[in-house]
């Protein structure tokens, strides 16, 4: 689908009128003044005003939007809270944004079955807040959990600092209700162990709004652990730190969190949050244990031994809940801290086999010279999920382009060592070219065939996540000799 | 695809000749003497001689079989060890069986990354045997693990007594290589945390050979726990036992195994294996803890408290590894024990929400009267995965039919309480009609569309797992007023 440069007034009016005939007053926005807040998501370098924004309040209205768009052949971009970091909710000039913001009801919490049924616009943290009265919580905790919605989490298969032990969204969602482009409701998954037939729940989670609109989500709740403590370990070089991560896992321990930050990151956050980080260390590791007090004490003891044997230069263990929160505060505020020391930053998201941690960190260090930009490394080390923060100044000519090239080079290195181009932020429009690097033609064909199986008219978030053969061919022709993966050319703000 | 009653000699010779031109000597069987061993799988009541059996020894030969079958329009039934219980490997009269038996090489074990790369014909237990030298093992442990292959486990998303804590096949496989019906190789999944694009690995696992032929599997290995102990708890009625299961889970404990057997089962196995079971109890629970010795001691203590509070009439804890194995021996030999006391038995497989355990057990008890047959209940209680063993004598007129109706009624009850018609044995041909009960038309359409996305000519294990609209319509017309789900009419031995 090739987008026009301009949408005729008549077309906008035609689609808006059809939508207004089916939706309540205030649920259809078409004035640019009103649609401006929807022009980008968390990847704010890319912006596009949509033709129309819709705000349905129930499943029937979601189906109405789908009906109108199908009948008038209008592309649809679904949107949760707009906190996504890969441009998955970037609007289309002649398309409709379907916001789930008003589908924000917690339908029920079943403390016996340990499940919650919620609408897609419910915030991630709101689920844990309501479950707290039963001593339960929803485990996946992306950095944006105050704001992001469960519908967006489903679209991006979001993770968080605890997903090493508790899993990604796909491991914590039992069932979704989906409105299809054909205007039907289907349920995928079940509250039981396994669902017969094809596992379409898993294929739906992480599908970035390309297969259908989620109208209800059943999530798994887990008991709040009785106790938790975190170790902060210092290392004199990143290679030793990277190998220590492997040693913890090799010892058969699955920490509740296993995060690594390099010196640049520690020095970036320390003046900001005073987390008590060792800013002389080349890298620090945060290793959390949770469970019963006895389990926590034993695991902290075992992790301490492993980290010492792996060459930690200093070790501190949180002694109170306040201290545990303080240790985590630095990690959790790494992104805002980057904003304090650099006019702009670009948060990458790639994964690698744990054994290649040290090698990739060394590679990124070398790229800092190549691209003339600093990079702060914070990551979910236990999962091998990297979040390098590339620091740049968009007002300096060429820096944005170098930051993008730097990011693409990191992703290409991730693929080279057997990893992937995204851990938990999705492909969206940001990494669509990198998909050509990650996958063979036959694999991309399989993705496209499954996409078409759900969306014959190809109206649901088109041109995201799955590159066309044409795009990969163009991309290969233009860029393969540069040895790095450039980003798609799209309207920039 | 409607199957003929007879395959012309010329057709068999045409297909066999085309296959022999591409495969080594001995890899194409067409004489009924040679193909007889392939006429059924573990659901031995249903048998069909295939036209031809192929035994490829490498990926290239798998592609050759697919090429020939695609060009000559021959349906293909993939087969692992043939231990499946739902007839997923039941041959087609004019089709080719593609056996993975000779693809039995363990390619490599990486003790650092904790993965093993194996060909699909490698036996489940063989992976753990080779991983044992590194203190690792492959977690999913179906009863048939001595014989069943990893390829078959992938096809059926197999579980086992430890899957409550360690997950099903889908949670323990990182990547598969797949030969498509188009004759291409694709890789689904990755060794990293998450794969970008659609999660086609999850949709492939449990797809019962309908999407492609797996040629290589990368599995996750886990460290052998240092210690393990099992509790055997007795209950005076099944309802109290069922509620005790819920109490264990509600206490925030995830046992390494949580199995329940009713009195019929305990009395059936005790004379056979002398496991020391309480044959006076209405139900016994086996609750296992594993981990470090300290963790095990603490969890056994907590589980004991919970089980006592839930009304256990007696509790025994294994004090040695030999005693632990003895306690498990009864559970693991339940199926052979059924064969000792009854000429025939029919093993069902359904799941229910844990909270409905007591209700469903009571329902099954009532059905014993309705259908005039005994039923021994053994199940993965922690997962809500039931394996009722319906005891019958096929030589008594009408008993087989009553056993099938009994089984179908159990599945219908599972669906009624919010469960599913299969936990880990797959749909195959056995439960294809029950799929019409479980799913709405739009949901079955979604399955079919994804099936077609992978297999345009519809040659891969056709007529299994996903019912056609025609089948559901016929089935509904014929049977909906009976209130039970009959089984498909297929050739019986």
UniProtKB/TrEMBL annotation, chains A, B:
Keywords: FAD, Flavoprotein, Oxidoreductase. One of its GO terms (molecular function) is oxidoreductase activity. The keyword Flavoprotein applies. Residues 46-224 form the FAD-binding PCMH-type domain. Transmembrane segments: none annotated. PROSITE patterns: FAD_PCMH (PS51387). Its cofactor is FAD. The keyword Flavoprotein applies. This is FAD-binding protein. It comes from Massilia litorea.
């Amino acid at each position: 689908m090739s987008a026009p440069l301009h949408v005729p007034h008549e077309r906008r009016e035609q689609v808006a009128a059809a939508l207004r005939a089916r939706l309540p007053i205030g649920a259809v926005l078409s004035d640019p003044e009103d649609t401006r807040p929807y022009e980008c998501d968390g990847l704010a370098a890319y912006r596009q005003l949509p033709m129309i924004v819709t705000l349905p309040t129930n499943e029937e209205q979601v189906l109405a939007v789908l009906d109108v768009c199908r009948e008038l052949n209008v592309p649809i971009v679904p949107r949760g809270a707009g906190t996504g970091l890969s441009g998955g909710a970037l609007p289309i000039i002649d398309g409709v944004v379907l916001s789930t913001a008003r589908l924000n009801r917690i339908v029920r919490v079943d403390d016996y079955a340990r499940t919650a049924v919620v609408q897609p616009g419910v915030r991630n943290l709101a689920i844990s807040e309501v479950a707290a009265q039963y001593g339960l919580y929803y485990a996946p905790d992306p950095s944006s959990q105050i704001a992001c919605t469960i519908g967006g989490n489903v679209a991006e298969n979001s993770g968080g600092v605890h997903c090493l032990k508790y899993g990604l969204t796909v491991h914590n969602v039992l069932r979704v209700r989906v409105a299809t482009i054909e205007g039907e409701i289907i349920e995928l998954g079940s509250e039981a162990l396994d669902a017969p037939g094809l596992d379409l729940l898993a294929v739906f989670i992480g599908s970035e709004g390309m297969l259908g609109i989620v109208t209800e989500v059943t999530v798994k709740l887990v008991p709040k652990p009785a106790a938790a403590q975190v170790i902060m370990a210092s290392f004199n070089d990143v290679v030793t730190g990277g190998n220590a991560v492997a040693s913890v896992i090799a010892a058969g321990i699955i920490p509740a969190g296993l995060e690594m930050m390099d010196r640049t990151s520690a020095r970036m956050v320390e003046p900001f949050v005073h987390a008590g980080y060792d800013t002389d260390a080349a890298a620090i590791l945060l290793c959390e244990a949770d469970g019963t007090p006895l389990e926590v004490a034993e695991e902290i003891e075992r992790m301490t031994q492993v980290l010492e044997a792996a060459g930690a230069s200093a070790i501190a263990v949180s002694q109170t809940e306040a201290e545990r929160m303080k240790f985590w505060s630095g990690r959790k505020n790494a992104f805002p801290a980057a904003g304090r020391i650099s006019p702009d930053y670009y948060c990458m998201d790639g994964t690698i086999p744990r054994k290649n941690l040290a090698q990739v960190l060394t590679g990124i260090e070398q790229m800092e010279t190549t691209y003339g930009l600093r990079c702060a490394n914070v990551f979910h080390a236990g999962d091998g999920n990297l979040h390098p923060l590339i620091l740049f100044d968009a007002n300096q000519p060429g820096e944005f382009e170098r930051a993008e090239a730097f990011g693409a080079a990191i992703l290409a290195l991730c693929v080279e060592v057997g990893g992937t181009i995204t851990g938990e932020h999705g492909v969206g429009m940001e990494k669509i070219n990198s998909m050509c690097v990650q996958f063979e033609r036959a694999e991309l064909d399989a993705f496209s065939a499954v996409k078409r199986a759900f969306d014959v008219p190809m109206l649901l978030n088109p041109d995201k996540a799955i590159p066309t053969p044409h795009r990969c061919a163009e991309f290969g022709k233009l860029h393969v000799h540069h040895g790095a993966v450039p980003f798609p050319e799209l309207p920039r703000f």
